[in-house]
Design brief:
- The structure is a single chain.
- α2 links the parallel β1 and β2.
- The longest helix is centred in the C-terminal third of the chain and has 45 residues.
- It is globular and about 65 Å long.
- The chain is an alpha/beta fold and 340 residues long.
- The C terminus is likely disordered.
- It contains twelve helices and eight strands.
- It has an eight-stranded mixed beta sheet with strand order 3-2-1-4-7-6-8-5, sandwiched between helices.
Length: 340
């Protein structure tokens, strides 16, 4: 009898959102490839729920896939389609406003589907939200295939330049702080969510010593995202101009000075990028292996090509859609409603 009463008390406690520590809003930004991947993802979300939290799963999948995934995901969280008022014309989602409205708790953690929190990191973010409006932890890639190494190098180079993470996959905020902001409407699906909060007056704390694991994407998905990430940086003219000028300068130096000058120029770029990566690795050596710094020149080369790729797509009028994996399924035929 006592055991039954205890179980009833625990169940009633979990049903009361006001007693939960935080809400975890996960955005399915890519298609779940297989039943095994869906089971692994559900298993992860079940551990998030056990940390006394409210789990919300925003799923933009087409109707049939949505219903298939719902059979599993409804047991580990509130599985729902994206409400129409939070969808953007380009196919993206206004994650900040959607999370602020749908979360049951004052403290909200937002993450993409490849992010994997532990109980320790969730607790750290909840504590930081006691004193900050918005908190952005540092994500890292593990395991580390060669394309994951390039992503890790990008993260380290950015850490060596400024404290806020670059294209971070997760952040947290207090609902009351976000709701008080003005001009929060999002029109461009490629806008960085945290930079948008900074622009509207939010106090953002870069939690550069809180490390959250992120699983690497498949190689095909990684390649597809290259022009999108390069296009996102068009909002930062100085950074974009640097990468636009890199290859023309390399060709010009080669023509004027030959292979010796070419080697010197390439060597300077490589040494500078590795040095920045090493600087960014300070305080993060536990999650970024030293070999990740050696990928920095490869990332610089990749981005100097991707900016032209992104410009070409922009001139052709191709919309860079963060949810491209779902939108593409509905382009060949009739209009597809995502989970409605």
């Amino acid at each position: 009898m006592a055991r039954r009463s205890l179980l009833f008390a625990i169940a009633m406690r979990r049903k009361q959102p006001q007693e939960r520590r935080c809400s975890y809003v996960v955005w399915l930004d890519r298609a779940i490839a297989s039943p095994d991947e869906l089971r692994d993802f559900s298993s992860y979300l079940s551990t998030v729920g056990l940390s006394d939290g409210d789990v919300v799963i925003l799923d933009p999948s087409p109707r049939l896939q949505f219903e298939m995934q719902r059979q599993t995901l409804r047991w580990v969280g509130r599985h729902m389609s994206v409400p129409p008022q939070y969808r953007l014309a380009g196919g993206g989602v206004d994650l900040v406003r959607a999370a602020a409205e749908l979360a049951a708790c004052e403290k909200v953690i937002v993450a993409t589907s490849d992010v994997r929190y532990s109980a320790v990191e969730l607790e750290q973010l909840c504590q930081l939200l006691d004193t900050h409006e918005v908190v952005e932890p540092q994500d890292y890639v593990e395991p580390l295939p060669w394309w994951g190494g390039i992503d890790a190098a990008r993260i380290l180079v950015h850490r060596g330049v400024e404290p806020l993470p670059d294209h971070a996959a997760t952040f947290a905020f207090r609902r009351t702080a976000v709701r008080a902001l003005r001009g929060l409407e999002l029109t461009d699906p490629n806008d960085d969510q945290v930079r948008r909060l900074v622009a509207t007056g939010a106090e953002v704390f870069p939690a550069s010593d809180v490390f959250v694991r992120r699983e690497p994407p498949a190689l095909e998905e990684w390649l597809t995202a290259r022009p999108r990430y390069a296009g996102d940086d068009f909002a930062m003219p100085v950074k974009t101009a640097f990468f636009f000028a890199l290859l023309p300068m390399l060709f010009l130096v080669t023509i004027l000075g030959g292979l010796r000058l070419f080697g010197g120029y390439a060597g300077v770029v490589a040494v500078a990028s590795v040095s920045l990566a090493l600087r960014g690795r300070a305080g993060a050596a536990s999650v970024f292996p030293l070999r990740a710094c050696l990928f920095a020149p490869l990332w610089v080369f990749e981005r100097s090509i991707s900016v032209y790729w992104a410009l070409f797509r922009k001139l052709r009028g191709v919309e860079e859609d963060p949810a491209h994996v779902f939108v593409a399924e509905g382009r060949s035929g009739a209009k597809v409603a995502s989970g409605e």
